[in-house]
Amino acid sequence: MDLRATTGWFFLLLGAILIMMGVFTTSTAPLTTVNVNLYTGLTMAIFGGVMLWLSKQTS
Amino acid sequence: MTLSFVDYAILALYFAFVLGIGWVLKRRVTTSEDFLTSGRSVPVWITSLAFIAANLGAQEVIGMCASGAKYGIMTAHFYWLGAIPAMLFVGVFMMPFYYGSRARSVPEYLKLRFDEKTRAFNAITFAAMTVFSSGISMYALGLLFQLVLGWSFTASVLLSAVIVLVYTFLGGLTSAIYNEVLQFFLIVVGFAPLSILAVSRAGGWSGVSERLPAVMTSSWQHMGDPSQNPMGVEIFGMAAGLGFVLSFGYWCTDFLVVQRAMAADSLSGARRTPVIAAFPKMFMPFVVILPGIAALALTQMNIGYNLPMKASGGYDYDQALTTLMAQFYPSGMLGVGLTALMASFMSGMAGNVTAFNTVWTYDLYQGYIRREAPDSHYLMVGRVTTVLGILLSIATAYLAQQFNNIMDFLQLVFGFVNAPLFATFLLGMFWKRTTGHGAFFGLVTGTAAAALTHGLTMAEKKGGWLGTVLTEFPSTMAQNFWIAIWAWTTCFAVTILVSFLSRPKTDAELKNLVFGLTEMPSEHGVVWYKRPGPLAIVVSIICIALNFLFW
Questions:
Q1: Does any CB of chain A come closer than 8 Å to the CB of residue B154?
Q2: Which terminus of chain B, N or C, has fewer Cβ atoms within 10 Å?
Q3: In sequence order, what E strands does B188-250 have?
C-alpha cells in the first residue's frame, strides 16, 4: 500500500468537507472573524493533492 | 463545548481510515517479525515521521501547551536543547550498533552486548513502564473529554482503546507506524492553525512579548540563577540534567522510539530516521508551545478569553489547548482539532503497545518462558500480548482514577530507573572494556542514587523522605534534573569501576556491537542529503539559529 495515496485521499476529503463548511455555512468562532474552515480546508486539500500527485509520480 | 454533526462526521472519517489501514496491512503479516518488527521493510520518510509521532502523545501535546502558558518559550528547551541533539546522536552514532547487531529490541541488544541480567532488568522495567504510561495517558484523555465534551469516561476510554487494538492487532508494527504518519500530519494540521490564530489575535509575537513579562518570551536570558525564571532552574542543571542526561536517556535508549528507526529498510535508513525526524521536530514548539503562551497573553487582554482557574486557585494550564480551540475553531475545524487530539492519543498508545508486545514476546516470553518454538507460536503470542497490553492499560486507567497517589509514586520510581540508562549505553557502545557486571551494577546503583537524591532533597513539598534534607530546590523540575545528573554520574562511575574488576568479552564476541569492532557502512559516492552526517549538520545549524531567534 502506498501511504502517500492514503494520506492524500484523507486530506482531500477532509479539505472538501471544510471548504463546503466555509462556503455554505456561516459557522463562526467567538474570537475570530476569519473564515477558518475555508482557509484550513483549502490548505488540507492542496496538501492532499500534492501527496496524491507524489504517489502517481512513482507508481 | 458542543460538537455538531460535521465534527462527528470528521471523527468518523478518521476512524474509518485508521481501521482501513490496519485492514489493508493485515495481508503483510505472516511471521512474528512482520508483526513485531515490520520485517525491517519500511521506507525512511515513514519511519521518520513515526519516530516523532510515537512520542507526540496527547499528554505531550496538552502538556507542552500547558508548559508554554506556565513557563513561556523556555519550554522549547525540551526540543531545541533536549530532543534535537539526542536525536542526531542516536542516528549518527548509535544506530549502527542497534541495527547492525540484528537485535530485535533494545533489551535484546543489551543481552548481546552484556548479559542476561542486564537485559532482564531493562526488559521488565520497560514493559511495566509502557503499560503504565499508556494507561495514564488513557486516563488523562478520558478525564479531558469528560470535562470538555461531557463524554462518559468509560465511553471515550473504551472507544479509543478498541480502535487502537483493532489496527495494531491486524497489521502489527507496520500498521502502527503507517497510522502514526497520518496522525502526525493530522496533529500538525489540527493544531497549527490554532497557533497562528491565537498569536495573531494577541498582536503577533511582538504583541505577545509586550503583554507578558520578558522571561516568558526569551529562552536563555533568564537562566543565570534559578530565582530568575518560573522553571526554577539554572543553566547547568538545564544543560546537564535535561539537555544531556534525560533527553539522551529517552531518545537514545527508549525502545518506543528506537523501534521505529529499527523498522527501516536499511542501515542507512535507520540512521537517517531520527535525523530526518529532527527537521519537523524542531519546529513543533511553534505548533504545541506557542498556543499556550498566546493563551496567557489573551487572558491579559480582556477580550473574552480567560485561562480557566483551578478550584484550589491558580490557572488550570492543562485546559489551555481545549479552551483556545473553543474560542478560535468554528464547527468543522473544531472536529479536526478534536480528531487531532484523539490522533495524538492513539499514536502514543499504539507506540506503547507495539513496544510492549515486542519486548514481552522476544525478551521475556522467548527469553525466559519458552525458548524453542515455531515462529507461528511467537506470532500468536505477539497478537495475544497486544490484546493483553491494551487490557492492562485500561485497567491502569481505572486504577489511576481511583488511586492517584499510587500512580504518582510509580511514575517517580520509573523516573529513577530511566535516569542512569544513557550511561550504560554510552559506555557499552563506545568502550569495549565495559562488562556485563559493570553495566548491571551501574544501573542498579544509578537507580538507587536517583532514589537517594529524591529522599535527601525537597522541592514543592516533594521528596525528603529520608529525614534529612540536604538541599531545597526551587521547583520539582530542578529536582528532577538533579536526580538525573546524580543517577547518571553514579552509573557511569560504578560501571567503569566494576568493569575494571571483571572480565571483558573478547573482540570476536563484540563484533557489530561496539565502536571500533563494527564495520561502518561506506558512504562513498552517496549524495550529501542521503548521508546522516551532513544532514545532522544542517539540522544543527537551523536549531542553533532558532535558539538565537528566541534568545
A1: no
A2: C
A3: none
- Rounded to two decimals, what is the model's pTM? 0.94
**pLDDT at site B488:** 96
Q: What's the pLDDT score for residue A59?
A: 64
Interval B286-303 mean pLDDT: 93
Q: Which residues of A touch B46 (CB under 8 A)?
A: 3
Whole-angstrom distance, CA of residue B249 vs CA of residue B271: 18
Nearest CA in chain A to B304: A31
How does DSSP assign B159-184, residue by residue? Answer: HHHHHHHHHHHHHHHHHHHHHHHHHH
* Helix, strand, or coil (residue B199): helix
Where does B202-304 have alpha helices with state H?
A: 204-211, 235-236, 247-253, 255-262, 267-288, 290-300
Distance CA B309, CA A59 (A): 54
Q: Which helix (H) or strand (E) holds B471?
A: strand B471-473
Question: Largest alpha-carbon pair distance within chain A?
Answer: 46
Cβ-based contacts of B5 with chain A (< 8 Å)? none
Concatenated DSSP letters of B119-162: HHHHHHHHHHHHHHHHHHHHHHHHHHHHHHH---HHHHHHHHHH
**Does B321 contact A at CB distance below 8 Å?**
no
Cβ B340 vs Cβ B191: under 8 Å: yes
Per-residue pLDDT of A5-50, as tens digits, reads 999 999 999 999 999 999 998 878 888 888 999 999 999 999 999 9
Q: Is B25–A1 a contact, with Cβ atoms under 8 angstroms apart?
A: yes
* Interchain proximity B13–A18, CB inside 8 Å: no
Min Cα separation B333/chain A (Å): 6
Using the Cβ of A42 and the Cβ atoms of chain B, whether some distance falls under 8 Å is answered with: no
Q: Which residue has the cell 536563555?
A: B220
Nearest to B131 by CA among B352, B347, B348, B343: B352
- pLDDT computed for residue B461 by the predictor: 84
- Look at residues B426, B25, B15, B65 and name the one whose alpha carbon lies nearest to residue B183: B15
Cell of B110: 543489551
> How many beta-carbon pairs below 8 A join chains A and B?
88
Contact B223, B233 (CB under 8 A): yes
d(CA B12, CA B19): 11
Interface of A with B in 5-34 (CB under 8 A): 6-7, 10-11, 13-14, 17-18, 21-22, 25, 27-32, 34
